[in-house]
Structure to design on (98 residues):
């Protein structure tokens, strides 16, 4: 004689069926190793491309910085020359240059 199913047994059966459906859906959506490998290869290629682009941009920025630094150095030299000339003029005006 079989025992009547307990309410807990029905809940367990329902849970097991839900797990089986979830496992079936997971199995249907599995990616093959080849597809996964190809996907990673594409990701790494994109990373390499981005890195190359960033390096190019950095090189251009570095060139611009070097040009600005050269201009700043020339400007600094001109200010030093103007300062010397200003000192000469001020000494002449104040009579301290004699």
């Amino acid at each position: 004689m079989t025992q009547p199913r307990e309410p807990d047994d029905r809940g367990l059966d329902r849970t097991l069926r839900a797990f089986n459906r979830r496992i079936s859906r997971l199995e249907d959506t599995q990616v093959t190793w080849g597809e996964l490998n190809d996907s990673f290869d594409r990701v790494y290629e994109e990373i390499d491309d981005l890195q190359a682009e960033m390096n190019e941009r950095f090189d251009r920025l570095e060139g611009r910085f070097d040009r600005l630094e050269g201009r700043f150095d020339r400007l600094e030299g001109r200010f030093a020359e103007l300062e010397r000339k200003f000192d000469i003029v001020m000494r002449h005006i104040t009579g301290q240059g004699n």
Summary: The helical segments are 7-28, 33-94.
